[in-house]
């Protein structure tokens, strides 16, 4: 459904505000305003939210694929578009295709495919590797993890602007490499790392702004050396993603993390897809994925399920859980036009019911089937 829309009969959440008995007005692909339900202008088609929650479309900054499409194993614009459509049906209207440690050739091919695909849903690429610490490699192949230098980075990244985030082990990354990546406008996040508290703080001071999947594949929080988790919690410029599926991180650890980090903690799925080829062969085990040897390799979450878990399992208020999947990730990538329902923002909207089931999705002002 195209044209001017008015979403009614739901509770509207955006940033720090929520409203009942209001209507969300959408025109020409953008948010117009939130108005009293009895003050909808002429020319708007009313869409009944049936008492559901109306919020910005969700934003996932680390996801590898969905269904049977693992982007790194398919590397085609058709695969990317299929993932787009599956995620839209889940209420995720913005995502960052992520590639785990691989060869430079695969990364270059992914960059070319992404540039050609011109996806309206995907925000850019997140490269999780190959500049990681083998001691915390998790599911990443040790033989493909390499040491960065500026010449290598220049060869990989110089002729593109689609890589937006890179996960690195900061204790192994030279200052000139960090400076080069930051000059390219790439957001850096620390992960798969043995960084000490001091090493992590030094990286945050150099411009690394995030931590990848807090608690997973990183130095331990110990009472004599709090490592990367402790540094993330205590450094006021550091944010961290977290996988709230109850498998990657215990719900009690999520509670502790939220108490310590407040608005600096945001949600990702780290979701992969079933895959039987290539170097990442992911096998679905009911609610998570493993490699053939049993190594935990990714989640089977949707981002809306992560929000539900935050509310029902962790005890986070719904409004705050939604901000963790909308406002906070948008802030981190400097996007003011998504993750909120302010006038002038893109009309990417999710409506879901009390059971956290998707009812309606509006993408770029169009009500999807």
UniProtKB/TrEMBL annotation:
* Organism of derivation: Sphingobacterium humi
> Which family, according to UniProt?
Belongs to the metallo-dependent hydrolases superfamily. NagA family.
Stored Pfam families: Amidohydro_1, NagA_N
What EC number(s) has UniProt assigned to this enzyme? 3.5.1.25
Q: Where is the Amidohydrolase-related domain?
A: 53-367
**Entry's InterPro entries?**
Amidohydro-rel, GlcNAc_6-P_deAcase, Metal-dep_hydrolase_composite, Metal_Hydrolase
Keywords associated with the record: Carbohydrate metabolism, Hydrolase, Metal-binding
Question: What's the protein here called?
Answer: N-acetylglucosamine-6-phosphate deacetylase
Instruction: List the molecular function annotations (GO) for this entry.
Output: metal ion binding; N-acetylglucosamine-6-phosphate deacetylase activity
Chain residues that bind substrate: 139, 216-217, 224, 248, 296-298
Essential cofactor(s)? a divalent metal cation
Query: Could you name the active-site residues?
Result: 270
Q: Which GO terms describe its biological process?
A: N-acetylglucosamine catabolic process
Q: How is the cofactor bound?
A: Binds 1 divalent metal cation per subunit.
Q: Where does Zn(2+) bind?
A: 128, 192, 213
């Amino acid at each position: 459904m195209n044209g001017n829309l008015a979403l009614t009969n739901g509770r509207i959440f955006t940033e720090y505000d929520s409203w009942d008995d209001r209507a969300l007005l959408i025109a020409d692909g953008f948010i117009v305003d939130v108005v009293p339900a009895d003050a909808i202008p002429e020319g708007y088609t009313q869409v009944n939210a049936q008492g559901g929650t109306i919020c910005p479309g969700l934003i996932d900054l680390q996801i590898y694929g969905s269904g049977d499409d693992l982007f790194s194993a398919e590397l085609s614009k058709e695969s990317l578009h299929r993932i787009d459509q599956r995620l839209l049906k889940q209420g995720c209207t913005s995502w960052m295709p992520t590639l785990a440690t691989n060869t430079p050739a695969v990364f270059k091919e992914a960059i070319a495919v992404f540039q050609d695909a011109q996806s309206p849903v995907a925000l850019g690429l997140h490269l999780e590797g190959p500049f990681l610490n083998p001691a915390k490699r998790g599911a990443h192949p040790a033989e493909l993890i390499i040491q960065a230098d500026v010449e290598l980075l220049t060869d990989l990244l110089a002729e593109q602007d689609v890589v937006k985030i890179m996960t690195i082990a900061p204790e192994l990354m030279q200052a000139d490499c960090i400076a080069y990546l930051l000059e390219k406008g790439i957001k850096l996040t620390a992960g798969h790392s043995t960084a000490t508290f001091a090493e992590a703080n030094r990286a945050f001071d150099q411009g690394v702004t995030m931590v990848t999947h807090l608690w997973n594949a990183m130095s331990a929080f110990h009472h004599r050396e709090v490592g990367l988790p402790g540094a993330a919690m205590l450094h006021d410029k550091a944010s961290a993603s977290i996988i709230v599926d109850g498998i990657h991180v215990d719900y009690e650890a999520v509670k502790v993390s939220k108490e310590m980090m407040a608005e600096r903690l945001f949600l990702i799925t780290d979701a992969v897809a079933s895959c039987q080829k290539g170097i990442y062969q992911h096998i679905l085990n009911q609610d998570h994925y493993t490699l053939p040897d049993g190594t935990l390799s990714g989640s089977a979450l949707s981002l809306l399920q992560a929000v539900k878990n935050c509310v029902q399992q962790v005890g986070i208020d719904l409004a705050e859980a939604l901000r963790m999947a909308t406002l906070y990730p948008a802030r981190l990538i400097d996007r003011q036009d998504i993750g909120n329902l302010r006038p002038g923002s893109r009309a990417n909207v999710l409506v879901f019911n009390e059971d956290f089931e998707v009812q309606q999705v509006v993408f770029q002002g169009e009500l999807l089937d």
